[in-house]
Amino acid sequence: MNKLARKMVEFLKKEDGPTAVEYAVMLALIIVVCIAAITALGQTASQTFTDVNTGISGS
Q: How many Å apart are CA 40 and CA 23, to the nearest integer?
């Protein structure tokens, strides 16, 4: 039983698990920011193409 308790304490002291979770949270935040930026740029680009098309057609 003592060996099991030591293994459990050793497992809880390791920082591999929390580090992996922190990296996963950072990755999720980066992905959210990228999606928001792409969405905003996509709408701006679409509006620019519409303006150019209107300008060419109206000339």
A: 26
